[in-house]
Every structure is written in C-alpha cells, then in structure tokens.
Design a protein that fits this description.
Oligomer: single chain
Number of domains: 1
CATH architecture: Alpha-Beta Barrel
Low-confidence stretches: none
Strand content: 5-15%
Mean pLDDT: 97
Distance between the termini: 40 Å
Strand order of the largest sheet: 3-4-5-6-7-8-9
Radius of gyration: 18 Å
Bound molecules: NADP nicotinamide-adenine-dinucleotide phosphate
Largest sheet: 7 strands, parallel
CATH topology: TIM Barrel
CATH class: Alpha Beta
Helix content: 25-40%
Length: 277
C-alpha cells in the first residue's frame, strides 16, 4: 500500500516509513494525571480507539500507561504517541523517561512538540531514539512550511508526521499541501477548537442535515481528507460519540461550507502566535 493511502477498512493511513497510524485517536492534553486520565484512556480503548496522544509536557504519561494496561488491549494493537518537550536538551534521555512512565518498551510516534530553539537541533536525537528502537516513527509538531523545509534539508531520516492545529476554522491549506508534497502526514490537533467550534451555526446546520452532532461533523471533515485526528474528551459518552465518524460521509456542498469557515487565509504557518521563544 502506497504512502498516504488509507487501509482497506478506511481507519488508518500509511506513513512514509510504512507504519500505519489510526485516523482517530484520543488526545489527553489538559487531562490531569490520575483517575480522570486513566478512565479516559481505558474507555477509549474499550470503545475501539487504537491511538492515544500524550506528551511529556502533559504530565500524565503514567496514567496513560495505566489506562492502557487496565483496558486489557494488547500493547501491540495501540498506536501510542508522545512528544519531546523542547525546553529539555536530549530527546533520547527524555524518551527513556517517557517509556518508564508509560510502562512500555517503545512508542509508535515520538514528535518534537514545537520548534523551540530552531527546527533542526533536536532532530539527530530524534533519529537516535528511532535507531535505538524507542520510537517506531519520528515526527514534528507546530512546524510551519519554513521550519519543515529547514528540517527536511538536514534530516537523515525524514519526519513522517507534522501535528498541527487544524480544523475547518484553521484550514491551513498551504501547509497541508507542502506536507503532502514532502510525504509528511499532517495530523490535526484541537479539531474541535478545544471546544470552541462546537457552537458554530454552520457546523450545527450540517450536523442536523445528517442527524449527527457538531463534533462528529468537525471530525469527519478531517477523516474525509485522510487526516489523522485526535479529539480530547474525559466523558465516556463523548468519547463514544467522537468515534462514530466512519459510518457517514459529508457531501461536496457540506465540505465547501465547512472549508469556507477558515480564518487563517489558507496559511502555510502552523500557528498564528508562537508560545515559545
Ligand atoms: N501538539 C500540540 O502542540 C497540541 C496542542 C493542542 C492539542 N494537542 C492534542 O490534540 C488533542 C485535542 O485537542 P484539544 O485538547 O485542544 O481539544 P479538542 O479535541 O479540539 O476539544 C476538546 C474539548 O471539546 C470537548 N468535547 C470533546 N468531545 C465533545 C463532544 N462530543 N461534545 C461536546 N464537547 C466535546 C471537551 O470537553 P470534555 O473533555 O469535558 O468532554 C474539551 O473541552 C489534545 O488533547 C492533544 O492530545 C496537541
């Protein structure tokens, strides 16, 4: 199966390194470590999710690992992402700590959380983490086109994922195209606008047309484009709702209306404002 292709069941995508990333994952940013996080991860896995997205900066890797074990789902069936916290120096030392906290031997995807200090310095350490078997795939997050190009100009092993803020309201078309050209899978974070897009009139109208919920419409908009998407919820019924996105399709008219919500002007940037120096 070729790069960028979706698997036969329509639920995963093939990355440039041949690994498969499930299109739907659970995000756990702002979920405190402890029962809330353990339950969210366990519920998601019980409900059929096979992809969990955490980060060193989230402070909840222990709970993610606990939820994974409590779910009873075999480790090998779950795609686990963590992110290198770039205020630290050494991606290898930090992923070793992540693996200990998560209680696993490897992560499926290890990404630089944001390009603090420039887009290239941490990459040799990321490549080393992969070589050592700590990460099956390596990638980046919050990299715009300029940063992506600089990284790909120096990398020995290319990044296979760029996780960015992406939704119909943040439809970074030029960034998406550049990622596609470079063989990098763009992954959508904050697909519900951290909840802000759920009250949208347009999204609500399209949801009613399909007998669906606004969250399902926003998520389906990504799935239609084969973009992996990682909504966050700590409520069991919402985690279940967000997984019901493989049994309906959006029409061309729906997609046009949703595309028109973009407020970034189709930018090639990953963010409108950086939170690091
Ligand atoms: N790489 C990065 O720099 C970066 C940055 C931001 C996010 N991310 C990743 O992307 C994930 C998702 O982004 P996000 O956390 O910003 O938010 P999001 O998934 O866009 O939205 C989550 C918010 O929507 C609510 N929600 C979820 N499903 C819902 C539903 N079906 N109905 C009504 N409300 C619903 C959640 O509330 P409840 O939890 O109360 O249900 C929460 O307030 C993060 O968790 C993280 O893994 C990565």
């Amino acid at each position: 199966m070729s790069t960028g292709a979706v698997t036969e069941d329509g639920r995963a995508r093939v990355l440039a390194d041949g690994k498969r990333i499930p299109l739907l994952g659970l995000g756990v940013w702002q979920v405190p470590s402890g029962p809330e996080c353990v339950n969210a991860v366990r519920w998601a896995l019980e409900l059929g999710y096979r992809h969990i997205d955490t980060a060193q900066a989230y402070g909840n890797e222990e709970s993610v690992g606990q939820g994974l074990r409590e779910s009873g789902v075999p480790r090998g069936e779950v795609f686990l992402t963590t992110k290198f916290y770039p205020a630290r120096k050494d991606p290898v030392a930090e992923v070793e700590r992540s693996l200990q906290r998560l209680g696993v031997d490897y992560v499926d995807l290890y990404i630089i959380h944001w390009p603090q200090g420039g887009p290239t310095w941490a990459w040799p350490g990321m490549e080393r983490a992969r070589e050592l078997g700590y990460a099956r795939s390596i990638g980046i997050s919050n990299f715009g086109v300029a940063e992506l190009e600089r990284l790909l100009g120096t990398a020995t092993v290319p990044a296979v994922v760029n996780q960015v803020q992406f939704s119909s309201y943040e439809y970074r078309k030029a960034l998406l195209r550049a990622c596609q050209r470079a063989g990098v899978a763009l992954e959508a974070y904050s697909p519900l606008g951290t909840g802000r897009h759920l009250g949208s009139e347009t999204v609500g109208r399209i949801a009613r047309r399909h007998g669906r919920t606004p969250a399902q419409v926003l998520l389906r908009w990504c799935i239609e484009r084969h973009i992996p998407v990682i909504p966050k919820s700590t409520h069991r019924e919402r985690i279940a709702e967000n997984a019901q996105v493989f049994d309906f399709t959006l029409s061309d008219r729906d997609l046009e209306e949703l595309d028109a919500l973009d407020r970034t002007g189709g930018t090639d940037r990953a963010l409108e404002r950086k939170w690091w120096r």
